[in-house]
Amino acid sequence: MLLMIVIFYFVLIRPQQKKAKEHDELIKTLKGGDRVVTSSGIVGVVISVREKSVSIRSGDSKMEVTKASVTEITERTGTTPSEG
Q: What's the rounded Cα separation, in Å, for the pair 80 and 53?
C-alpha cells in the first residue's frame, strides 16, 4: 500500500506541482513587449501588466485577459510596443 502511495505521488502529484510552480514563475516575469499565447489560443503582444490581468494586442484588436490564461511566452522582447 505504501509503495502505491509513493508511486502515485511521483507519477501524478509531483509533476502537477512542478507545472504549477513553472506557470507562477511565467506569470511573475510577464512584461510589456512579450509575445504570449493564451489558453484559448490567442497569440498577442503584451501591452501592459496589471495586478490580475494583462492587456494584449492581437492583430488589430486590443483585449484584456487574466494572467492565469497566459500559458506560454513565445518571445521575450522586454520593450513596450507602440500604440498607434
A: 16
